[in-house]
Design goal:
137 residues; five-stranded parallel β-sheet; Rossmann fold; 7 helices; 13% strand; alpha/beta
Length: 137
C-alpha cells in the first residue's frame, strides 16, 4: 500500500472545508478510510493543526476533531535526528518544511502531498498536489 505524508495545508483544507481545496483533501481521506492508501502526518502537523483549530473553535471541539483525525492517519514522531537533518539542510529555507521532509524520509514514506510544491523543490521523494495524486487513479 502506498504511504503518503500529508502536509499541514492539506489537513487544514480538510478540517476547515477550505473552498477550492476541500474536495481533493476529502477524497484522499476517503481513500485512506477504505484502506486504499496510508496517510501519515508529522507530530508537528498534529500540534500546528490543534493550534489553528483552537483559534476557530473551542479547545474541546478541537480535541474531538483531532481524535477523529488520528483514526485515519499515522502520526510520525519528530526526534533529534530529524531535527538535526532539517537544521543542517540549507536547501529547505523553511524549517517546518524540512521537518516534514525528513519525517517522510526517516519513516520511508513513498511521497509527499502538499499544495506548496515549490517548498519541496530539492526533495528526493516525489511531491504532488492532492489533485495530481488523485489524477493518477
Amino acid at each position: 500500500m502506498i504511504k503518503l505524508l500529508i502536509d499541514t495545508n492539506i489537513i487544514i483544507d480538510l478540517l476547515s472545508k477550505r473552498q477550492g481545496f476541500y474536495n481533493d483533501a476529502a477524497r484522499l481521506f476517503s481513500q485512506a478510510d477504505k484502506n486504499q492508501i496510508q496517510l501519515s502526518i508529522s507530530s508537528l502537523t498534529f500540534a500546528n493543526t490543534n493550534y489553528i483549530l483552537t483559534k476557530l473553535r473551542s479547545a474541546k471541539e478541537a480535541r474531538e476533531i483531532l481524535r477523529k483525525l488520528k483514526v485515519l492517519v499515522e502520526v510520525l514522531a519528530l526526534d533529534e535526528k530529524i531535527i538535526d537533518l532539517a537544521l543542517n539542510d540549507e536547501e529547505f529555507s523553511d524549517f517546518e518544511d524540512g521537518l516534514q521532509y525528513y519525517s517522510a524520509i526517516e519513516n520511508e514514506v513513498d511521497l509527499i502531498i502538499t499544495r506548496n510544491k515549490k517548498d519541496f523543490k530539492s526533495a528526493k521523494l516525489p511531491v504532488l498536489s492532492p489533485k495530481e495524486f488523485l489524477a493518477l487513479g
